[in-house]
Amino acid sequence: MNSPAIRFAGFTEDWEQRKLSSIATIKARIGWQGLTQKEFLDDGDYYLITGTDFAEGTIDFPNCHYIGEDRYRQDTNIQVKARDVLITKDGTIGKVAYIKELDKPATLNAGVFVIRGRDEYTSNLYMYHYLAAPFLLDYADEQATGGTIKHLNQNVLVSFPVPMPSVAEQEKVGHFFSAVNDLITLHQREHDKTVNIKKALLEKMFPKDGEDKPEIRFAGFTDAWEQRKLGDLGSVVMNRRIFKEQTAESGDIPFYKIGTFGAEPDSFISRELFEEYKSKYPYPKVGDILISASGSIGKTVEYTGKDEYFQDSNIVWLQHDERLNKSFLKHFYSVVKWHGLEGSTIKRLYNKNILDTKINVPSLDEQQVVGAFFDRLSDLITLHKRELTKLQNIKKALLEKMFV
């Protein structure tokens, strides 16, 4: 067997392909062994690990149920140890977890395999990263006789081919991908933290119902915010209707429908039609905030000036004058309570709902400061998201290059 395209210095020997069953034991609870949900405990000394307890490559132990000592000792084959690899076989199949350590004894519920290296020549950490990569599910798809896989059969695991270098190289590869995962987790946490900070500040920096001042505001601003209706400040407009026969699967100008709003377009119109409609009918200006009026009601996208067209009535915007700052309005939409939709089963945002919606408006200077502040937070979130995506893509490329 060949060696990978990228490997650590000092390792030159070819890798050997082995079946998973030849390098590891594969165990699971046989049926339910009479285990019933009545035996699940909210507290105890013995964890019962279920497929729903898997979380980002580990087990969410605070979420686990417990089980009595007799049930734990019933089957030694599924008693979990530190450095074991667990994998789900039912539900969301193929989720993989690595057990770094245990603070209490643990056993498995039905639907989970425990995989453990047979000897000192197999690194469980290496196995974890290989099983967590797409290779296993790709192999399972190849072995399937057709249709969607709803169960990970043990015979798939038994025959699954695993490329095996020396144990020293296995450890190097395993620890390397653990470090990559830690870096991805760090960026994910920074992203999530910034998202939560923004969410909390939105609640504090726009007045609550019945109030005319926010809890937090910038220095130098003390005046009350004026309550108005969006209809007092502008009107709802939309693009000209585009008929299906005017669209194509490819073309010059992307045409966004409600299903592709904020995503990739799947329809296009000709430039000739675009230029005609853009000159004759309402068209957004740079910075206008487009709103979805159906589907994901209230979803917003800022128009950046690209040549593109939007489905009438389903995608609209508020055409307003200089009394409203566009960035301020954009972030107001993050906390808006649309008129007539509170507690309603209505699945559409009508023009009247928008126009009758109340908005607290400060001075234009304060609007600009608030809008710019939340723009910076949004930019920071986007930066974290890009870094996260870049790291995930780097990991994906390395998985392909560092395994045979």
Keywords:
elongated; alpha+beta; single chain; 4-stranded mixed sheet; 21 strands; 11 helices; 404 residues; Adenine-n6-DNA-methyltransferase TaqI, Chain A, domain 2
Low-confidence stretches: none
Helical proportion?
25-40%
CATH superfamily of the largest domain: DNA methylase specificity domains
Strand count, sense and barrel status of the largest sheet are: 4 strands, antiparallel
Taking strands numbered 1, 2, ... along the chain, how are they ordered across the largest sheet? 2-11-8-9
Number of continuous helical runs:
11
> Which class do the helix and strand fractions yield?
alpha+beta
> How far from one another are the termini?
8 Å
The second-level CATH architecture of the largest domain is Alpha-Beta Complex
CATH topology of the largest domain: Adenine-n6-DNA-methyltransferase TaqI, Chain A, domain 2
**Total domain units:** 2
pLDDT averaged residue by residue: 94
Overall morphology: elongated
Residues in β-strands, percent? 15-25%
- Using only C-alpha atoms, the radius of gyration works out to 28 Å
Number of E-state strands: 21
CATH class of the largest domain: Alpha Beta
Molecular structure report:
This protein is α+β, with helices and mostly antiparallel strands and 404 residues long. The chain has 2 domains: 16-165, DNA methylase specificity domains (Adenine-n6-DNA-methyltransferase TaqI, Chain A, domain 2, Alpha-Beta Complex), CATH 3.90.220; 226-361, DNA methylase specificity domains (Adenine-n6-DNA-methyltransferase TaqI, Chain A, domain 2), CATH 3.90.220.20. It has 11 helices and 21 strands. The strands form 7 sheets. A 4-stranded antiparallel β-sheet has the order 2-11-8-9. It has a 4-stranded mixed β-sheet with strand order 6-3-10-7, with no helix packed on it. Helix 3 packs across helix 6, helix 6 packs antiparallel against helix 11 (364-402) and helix 9 packs across helix 11. The longest helix is centred in the middle third of the chain and has 39 residues, at 167-205. The chain is elongated and about 75 Å long. It starts with 15 loop residues before the first strand and ends with a helix. This is Type I restriction modification DNA specificity domain-containing protein. One of its GO terms (molecular function) is DNA binding.
